[in-house]
Amino acid sequence: MHAAMEYVALVLNIILIIALSVSTFFNIVAPLDTINRERLKLVAQKIENRIILSPGTPPDWGENINISTNDLSNLYDVGLASISALKGFYTLESDKIIRLIEYADNPFYIPPNFIKQHLGIWKTYGFRLTLIPVIKFDVKITSHVYNTKLPQKIIVYTRNFFGNPQGNVIVTVYYFIFGLYSNSTSRLFFLKNTGITSILSNGSCLLDFSYVKEFYTNKTLSELVLTEFTFSRIEYLLVIQGSIANLRSIGYYPHIVPNATSVGRYISLRQNYSLISNNSVIDIAPPRFFTVSLNNVTHRVSLGDNFKTYYLSYIEPGTYIVVLLGKYNNTLYVNYAVKHKEFTYQTSPGVGASAVTIYRYVDIDGFSYVAVLTVWEVSG
Q1: How confident is the model over 321-365, as pLDDT tens digits?
Q2: Which of 73, 145, 332, 372 could potentially form a cystine with 233 if both were Cys, beta carbons 3.0 to 4.6 Å apart?
Q3: Radius of gyration of the chain (CA)
Q4: What would the DSSP string read from start to end of 25-66?
Q5: What phi and psi values does residue 196 have, to the nearest 5 degrees?
Q6: Could you give the 3-state DSSP secondary structure of residue 224?
Q7: Residue 302, pLDDT score
Q8: Residue 124 CB neighbours (<10 A)
Q9: Strand-strand pairing, 343-346 and 77-78
């Protein structure tokens, strides 16, 4: 009996020791994990300060066409913030944003590893910066004008940052039609319509352009097609603006891959694109738009042999899209330079197991985005 009691006591002591050991282990590991996350938070905040809150060095690097993918020697620090203190906190410049968006016709793109090296995190940390509009748009065309591809009735769906349908959004659609003649002349047509989305209709509103009068001719779309359209090529662009409370977002339809790039008052094109006239450039800054003239840039810029650069006679503050009417290999063509849009900019394909994410509302030309910055430690 006495031996049995000793055995029971021994077993209880072993269980107590194991329990204490496990408790001590978790008490050690939990603070270490917390310390690692706090350290990552500090790193993320420092990266945010450099990229989101700083204008960079030099502060006007965004509009400097001598800073390009081929020549980064004059860029010492990449910061996206506006150089104008009057524009407010967390205000970013579109001329800097466009340099983080990678596409084939962007000779001003800044590779992520360049920024990573200048941040001093070359071998230790990785990061991903995503810019997401606070209101997203989807478009469904329900009818066209006669047998053309021009939309006549459209449904605009609005979604919030989380992807859920959003009601009570005031939606304005700026409808541009570009007509190009075979003799290298062009015409611009413009219509506008406004509606309010309803959560009862999945965050959508129907916009009917059937009876909306065109800006220049005072004709409807049907009348335009019957009386004005003798073009060799017709293209259209819907620029969509949504607002709710103090938040504004902007988008476009149909989906286009930019094939020109605008920074400052300069615009670059591939060498095999040509403009049909010096006045074939449309500067769209909703609710305003302008036809502007341009000249060839005579001084050398380091864009390589594949690109040519033009200087715009005027660029409206808050420009969203620059449209260029021209030719590509002798085929009439429309080129688009988008100043800002949703994008992801990442230093490496994967994200580490332990990562910290910071969310910030930012403003670009009066439009609201959520900047999502994720930082992780690079293993090995």
Answers
A1: 999 888 887 788 888 999 988 999 988 767 767 789 999 999 999
A2: 332
A3: 27
A4: HHHHHHHHHHHHHHHHHHHHHHHHHHHTS--EESTTGGG-TT
A5: -125, 130
A6: helix
A7: 59
A8: 10
A9: unpaired
